[in-house]
Amino acid sequence: MLTVTDLDLFYGDAQALDGVSLTVRAGTTTAIVGANGAGKTSLIRTIAGILRPSGGSIRLGEREIAGLPSHTVCNLGIGQVAEGRQIFPSLSVRENLEMGAVIPRARADAARTYDRVLALFPRLEERLGQAAGTLSGGEQQMLAIGRCLMGKPDLIMFDEPSLGLAPALVQELFRTVRTLAAEGMTIILVEQNVAASLKLASHAYVLENGRIVLSGSGAALLDDPAVKQAYLGL
Ligand code: ATP
Q: Is 11 near ligand 1, meaning CB less than 6 Å away?
């Protein structure tokens, strides 16, 4: 579904992505693992069209999308739940969800998608009129996911979705990701919670200093001595 080949990204003179290649098959969950500063967020933001790569290719199916603006990428079916959630705090929960459906691909089905999102997150339904900034951290994360789903993505990229959440909410978040995966959603998951994300993922990549240094099935990487030592503290 998504094929990234030899992707390079620079911030000024500093190279953040160096020849990154990866493949995401439709209907699978792919984990991207790496230390702080490895380039995970840069990779997600480049695929999303927020950052412009200096080289390489990003193909969605047969279509080259590298360098397209983010609203176009979004409208082609790539949604993103950004690190730090980025909801609109002064808008209500309902308004935040509605904002997710403004892209053309989502408009016609918005009412049906809205019902589906509220069925997935009943807690949001109880708070539809409430300003989003007054939600708890876990509820804000649900809202960020719900808003992304309102755009009817075929592929969702999660950037550190469990960051700052209490352990019980982290479990709930992983349940949500599993539910979406079971429904056939294609998922890219960047997570500090490496063990949990590798368990979920059919395929995983390890990013170090802007390069992919290891890849394999989630199970194989969970068992890999270098991964165990560097990321699982074993
Ligand atoms: P983290 O888990 O800490 O968010 P990450 O793996 O997502 O890390 P990135 O945020 O993609 O890593 O950062 C990759 C590299 O690019 C780092 O060296 C970082 O300092 C640098 N970088 C990120 N954003 C910028 C920016 N706007 N300007 C300059 N350098 C940046």
A: yes
